[in-house]
Amino acid sequence: MKKQKSDWFDWIKALLIAVAVAFVIRTFFFIPIIVDGPSMLPTLHDRDQMIVNKFVYRIKKPERFDIVVFHASDKKDFIKRVIGLPGEHVAVKDNILYIDHEPVEEPFLSELKENMKPYQILTEDFQLENLPGGYAAIPENHVLVLGDNRSNSVDSRSIGLISMDQIVGKTSLIYWPMDRIQIVGK
């Protein structure tokens, strides 16, 4: 009888430890997220399932072209790409990204740009001063984010700059569906 009680106690103890470890991992390190909508096409597809690294920005700052998840509202998280960093001026003119008035290649858009017709617009022209907030340069602890599907994305062009406090983490691993398993990013 004592052996049976001991076995049950060991099983319950192991289960509680597993639940505690899962809670800590999900709370502080990694969470799953499902892409909702076409704003990151062609890089991410609607319903792609990804892992978000919540820890990485505690030890380093976001880098240009990182794909981040952030709180757009109390009820909605968005997935977008970091384009502009603190202290920078960002503009797009004739489908070319300019950071501090210098053209910057966007390798994740190369295929789209190659297949465009000469009159086609991938990204409407804009400059930082004309976005919500009217900044001349991106303030400290903020980033400018854009969706890869520039003609169909709610991003910094309409919602303004994103504060570091809004960022949940970085995502780069698609784990579902099986035929889309890959590391994405720069």
UniProtKB/TrEMBL annotation:
Its EC number is 3.4.21.89. Keywords: Hydrolase, Membrane, Protease, Transmembrane, Transmembrane helix. The active site is at 39, 80. One of its GO terms (biological process) is signal peptide processing. One of its GO terms (cellular component) is plasma membrane. InterPro entries: LexA/Signal_pep-like_sf, Pept_S26A_signal_pept_1, Pept_S26A_signal_pept_1_CS, Pept_S26A_signal_pept_1_Lys-AS, Peptidase_S26. It is a single-pass type II membrane protein. Residues 9-176 form the Peptidase S26 domain. GO terms for molecular function: serine-type endopeptidase activity; signal peptidase activity. It is found in: Cell membrane; Membrane. PROSITE patterns: SPASE_I_2 (PS00760), SPASE_I_3 (PS00761). The keyword Transferase does not apply. It comes from the Bacteria. It catalyses: Cleavage of hydrophobic, N-terminal signal or leader sequences from secreted and periplasmic proteins. Pfam families: Peptidase_S26. The chain crosses the membrane at residues 12-35. Belongs to the peptidase S26 family. This is Signal peptidase I.
